Structures
1.
Amino acid sequence: MKLGELTERLFIEGVLRNYLGKRPPFSRLGFPDDAVDFLPLAPRIVVSVDASSIASVKLPWRSLGDAAWAIATGAVSDHIAKGSRPAYALVSLGLSPDLDLSEAKAIVRGLSEAFNYYGVSWVGGDTNSSRDPWISVTMIGFTTAKRPPPRSGARPGDAVVVTGRYGAMGYVALRGVEEASRTTWVVEKTRRPLVDVRVGTVIALNYKSIHASMDVSDGLGFTIMEISRLSGVGFRVEKPPLVFKEVYELCEGRLQCLYELSLNGGEEYGVVMTVSKEGLGNVVEDLESYGVEYEVIGEVVEGSGLKLEGVNKVAIYGWDQFGGYVKSA
Amino acid sequence: MKLGELTERLFIEGVLRNYLGKRPPFSRLGFPDDAVDFLPLAPRIVVSVDASSIASVKLPWRSLGDAAWAIATGAVSDHIAKGSRPAYALVSLGLSPDLDLSEAKAIVRGLSEAFNYYGVSWVGGDTNSSRDPWISVTMIGFTTAKRPPPRSGARPGDAVVVTGRYGAMGYVALRGVEEASRTTWVVEKTRRPLVDVRVGTVIALNYKSIHASMDVSDGLGFTIMEISRLSGVGFRVEKPPLVFKEVYELCEGRLQCLYELSLNGGEEYGVVMTVSKEGLGNVVEDLESYGVEYEVIGEVVEGSGLKLEGVNKVAIYGWDQFGGYVKSA
């Protein structure tokens, strides 16, 4: 059955509403109202919106549910990098009337599985007709941090801390989708990207010493270049971030190879943060105590751009929604 | 120049950022961060998301800017009906790389003009590539009301108050887009729909006596049927809402004609509220003191559905995103 035959109303009432979470405490509005209401769970409210056409995240080995999961994860990631605990999601969906109900259900289920995994309650949204299906996730979070770290706050002397493991999406970007689809570990690591929400807690606890922070949604190299550009500083990188063990094997220890695979990619959803020298000890202690995967890869310096120690220049590409892959360094 | 040639980055930095408003007070994040942060402006926070493909609101006499205005107005309207003052907007845009920069600018300008008109600050968002361009507006508002009125709270005995003027979009729905495009007053009244934000203040002030409230985005008849269905009550309507003077002339006073044109349509963005008998005097006094256009059209009764006094049955259609126009009564 196609959505056009089912009608929007029956899709909302028969499918979507089953995935909606409980209303926030003391809330009075919710499904099927056009808006949701809540009282703040922490002094500062953080809101983001992160959207994508489904086609653009639909790697061949991702099901529609996997693609939806990836989009929901991207929305969570924006909060983590700012020290915010994501709490409530509103989802705006553009689906084609020609879409099979089973496919629409797979999309909704993928979103719901991701929200459940991250402890986010899906509280509302909007459905629309679109010939090029898309998902826009509005995420509402809360933070106790008085100053959530922006992209633009890096200062010379800061240590550069990178959370997460890299190299799988770099493999896709550099070797192509064809070869990646035959490489089991790449498929496994990229099917449903994950965010470590504990990183957000560490950032909220250490906001005074974390001068800049940005999530790695468009590639680690691109992320570093963005912080560099917006902060008016340079980055000296002395070692690669953590990579998957298959990347170590593949690179046979060659630094150039490790940088190429870890700096390119996207959707890794680790965080790049720059931390004052005085604050680094506490940040590292907190990351360790939560068991977060991280590496201190270098430091912020005067100047601009990214200098990699011990290797030739590594080309870095970023994804541009209108222009496709563009070189950023 | 096409967006694909310009790149997303230059579109954001060269065009979009010029339309962003000031950061909220005490905010630390904002353009170009992925999230915005703010402190609450009133005890209760209200968030909605309202999206649309541009094609679906692009009446032939609407420019792209008018279409964008209409979508922004729809997002404001959801707040007004809940007694919320809309304050901050995040806009998720899906635009085609083939779109001319001038057209993209017209869309952004239309959104910005609407937000300025309603006193909303455009604080962030997301840009995406889409072959079927769309706009999703996340609106954040605040209310002092302890219980914002839901769709589902109508009680027998309540008076039915309808704000706004009707008939122009009914003309489009019943006579068709062709004839409407040759009818000057219809074109003028529907090009850029307007919401009266003072209605939201009246609702916040009178939340104790306003049992149900819903904005008229999909037609007045459909709105009444929705409140009826969700509240488990019926509506007895004794007179039509306010209509444009051209509708009175057109109908030559015939009640059937007045109901047909006022109950069908959409995007009128008035509000239907049901008000306790005891509270009606205060609500009317507040609406009068603000100069809001309204009519008390009838009352809520036991039972279900919509009974129009003095006329035969009037067919009511609602817009279904997947199914198109569907009959709701």
2.
Amino acid sequence: MVTQSDIAKLAKVDRTSVSKILCGAQLEHFSDDVVEKVKSFAIRLGYKHRHFKNALKLGFLFPVGMDEALDGYTYAERTMAALLGASKVLEGSKHSLQIVNINYSNRTFDFDKVANTADVFIIWELTWEWADRFYAILKEKQKDFVVINRVSASFKDSYIIHESDEVYIKSAIDIFCKYGHSKIAGVFNDVEKTGRLSAMKEAFKQKGLEHSAQNVFSFHERDADGCRKTARLIAERGFTAVFVQSNDMNALDLVIELGKLGLRVPEDISVLGNHKKRSLPSLGLDLSSFETPWYEMGKRAAEFLIAGYSQSDCSKRITHEVLKQKFYEGNTIRGLSR
Amino acid sequence: MVTQSDIAKLAKVDRTSVSKILCGAQLEHFSDDVVEKVKSFAIRLGYKHRHFKNALKLGFLFPVGMDEALDGYTYAERTMAALLGASKVLEGSKHSLQIVNINYSNRTFDFDKVANTADVFIIWELTWEWADRFYAILKEKQKDFVVINRVSASFKDSYIIHESDEVYIKSAIDIFCKYGHSKIAGVFNDVEKTGRLSAMKEAFKQKGLEHSAQNVFSFHERDADGCRKTARLIAERGFTAVFVQSNDMNALDLVIELGKLGLRVPEDISVLGNHKKRSLPSLGLDLSSFETPWYEMGKRAAEFLIAGYSQSDCSKRITHEVLKQKFYEGNTIRGLSR
């Protein structure tokens, strides 16, 4: 049986302080370091204290600065959706939320400080190699975490993600084939990403379709020239169907560029987007796309972390969940007679 | 000097319970009603307890359901921005955040229950008449609140909002006049809203320009026909400049419809949007617009509420702040030689 005195000894504070800290009382009398140390030892020793376990601070860690959050096509939507999912779980509970907004591109944030901002973490797609240091710190502190949205194939810790690019590619090609298309192009923001090219090859092969570098295009969200060039090549090469893996707004950009070349959607070419967002009414179309379960990800991640927190050793719990994207049938895919 | 016994007497619980509740300790032993009652009496009596005052739960109440949050053009961006502003203030503090998402259109939410979800509230634009009941409940419970984004002219409680439509209209007309335009149209999603028409008249009059119903157009975000009709009338009536008050995505819709009629932006017609969002690269333009200080609103609201909470009587504090929108100069306004 672990006692508060055991924790006090390890943390080098008196027992009354341990009691107050674990009760969440008079916290203003203690430095953040001391609070952190006491909580950390309490978890490590498996100390059971109902109130402490009930007063969970759930950190929602996500990338991008304010400017980008407002500016990117879907950053705000996806983050809001996941946040709402997590909040739904916290509603009416004693738990609280801490939004932790880090500009990942800096790579210079104070891992230790960030790890101290919450008891457990929902982490948006922090899957770069340099982030391993952060995960090591979380584990050292025995703080449970779940990465959501996407992870690399080698990622071993807990994650709740949407289906992979490979699944999207296969689904897109399946759908187009079902509608009688065989001249299919794929558009990415970054085709070099692991698995995309080979997924294209594999999916084409399964359908008995010929695949080459001619089928694959890429341009980044703000690259007007790249989008224009892609539209021109798609027109020249006579594709009847194109899927845009990056997102719906990129797909709309492509639709506009195709329109400038006289190609109408879906009469001349069918288009399938990704990460459903509503279309511009002026384009006169309702983009067919896939809906991404961001709300559900946030919700399940929060549920997992809260469930784990009531157990004595949360560090050994691992979850690997892959949530399905859902096909949204708009009016931008035309059936070809065969 | 108010004591815990005074509170215990009023709340009809024992003194130890009052102590625990105000310390935030062992809260799981008490029903939400009891916790709420004790806290409420403590505030009403002006009881000073450092920890209690330090453990502030800040509710962020905003409208729209999940679907709309993802679907509307700027709902997610503006909400994220305000949330990030509020979170910034909470960072590293003992305070916590509670996102409270209500579908306002239902008008049926349980006001009392919502009021109990947090100690103080940042409220997104809840300024309809039926909402007065909610404000009355918050006041009764002596819970401080700030309404952000917009309020009606008659709203007397605390608000931190962006400049009014009237200011936007005047600024837009000022900018166009500075560039030598005199044939100016205004586009709204709802022109009937108080003050918009008279603000148009007034601003035109100040510049010595003629104003009539011919200058004013309106269509809603999803109304493709309305947008098309507006574009046609703008072309027919020979305007050289148009501002779109509703938002930048509506402005882009209008740009696309004008393009179908052969009108190029800014060569043939200048366009000014609102609530800056980046343009579609495929349109080959960087929309001139106004940036709305949503982040700043959330930040200041949280600062105000936290500052007030450390005082004994927060119910009498009122703030009325109007934050400026900032002109963003893109490339969609052309100077006319006079």
